[in-house]
Design a protein that fits this description.
The chain is an alpha+beta fold. The chain contains twelve helices and eight strands. α1 (about 30-45) packs parallel to α8 (about 255-285) and α2 (about 45-85) crosses α8.
Length: about 450
Amino acid sequence: MATPTNSSNLRDDYSGQFDPDLTLADFSRDFLSRLAHEFNLIGHLYDRVGQPLVAIEYGPEGFTRSGIEEWQGASPIYSLRMQKALNFEGDTVETVFKNLQLEVGSPQQFMDFQFRLDEPDYGEFWLAHCGALMDLENNGNDTNLIKLMCHDIEDPTFDATAAATHPRIVMRPLHRPPRIDAEHGNGVGRFPHCRWKVYKGDEDTTFEHIPVMYELQGSLLATVPLVEPGGSREPGGLEDYSGPFDPHLQFEDFSHRALNLIIQENALQAMLLAHSYTRSQTINYGDEVGRRFSERSWVGHARVAVERLQKHLGVAGDDIEAIAKVFQLHPHFYPRSYTDLRIEITGANSLRLSLKDCPALAENVKHNWFSQLTDEPHPALEAIAAHVNPKARCHRVAEAGDARFAWDVVIDENNEPLKEPLEMQIARTSKGVGFEFERRRLPGVIARG
């Protein structure tokens, strides 16, 4: 176990002045556990922006293909990364269950997975609350669309995630929505919403990954190291997940150092999903569509993250310091080993964003978010600033100095308030944007010490 360092000056929130040198390691274990929940859910909500864009233009067939290819391309890569980061590499169903507890595909509480591990290679899980299903039931309860999500998309993507751990591990439904009394239904009001068994199958069940997954394995993002926080700066918690499987695990159970790694990995998982999503659209519909959907999904998802950071982590206010804090905590710029973003407040109503040479700017995934950056401000950057203050705008900087790109963010009271983009309005159809986490531990007490 790493030796804790001084914890007396750790922050429990981000009140007070903006600190340009602040890192994740400067926050308390309590704050990091809440930030982990946020990054975990924010990553999941990428689909609430990206997939509706596909459905609007390409209908149910496009929606289904996009959902399958996005998750099949990304989840096998990030599953192995998380296993390595938290030291639970293995080839059993137990390993798969640990993965599910930590990844953006099954955000804790919003997708409330409950587990029963009967033996290392057989177990079951069920969802006490499925936020994805609730979104569809609350928005028309279209049973055909529910079947697309819970059958057509879920089957191959669940198996791709499991196969990352072992090519013969499979997930098979015991029951699942739509919750109707008809063919393909599991009964009106059925609870839990679905139930699955997970086991190691026969030799002939070996899973074949899709080409996009192998392509993304060669990306810089797939192999970038995390920023190592060093020893935990606060005592208590699990330093990794090498011990027994805990069916009731929450992020609060982990140590200060482990939470730092989990947060970075969850940010990276969301970026891998964005890469995979973009590759799917580009391969199926061409460069123009791939580039356009990539930009639009970045704008919408960037706004989702800002709203949750401000509403649920107390990054309050609409002044220039609030904008600086939001950029500093925004998941799209983690891990810093991938995206070297610097923020400097330059005046009462202005700040400068600088992006130094970093792997994100050298990424080989066509039409990825950071490949779109130029000297002119990108709409996603302005979307982040304007969600904090609608009168904030980004401006080009003529001389970027030692940075590759630099932009000034300025709050000008003479500006017309920037309207919320359509992509954010689409995202609001999901209850996930406003979902509130509960603390599933005693108030004021972080689990495991």
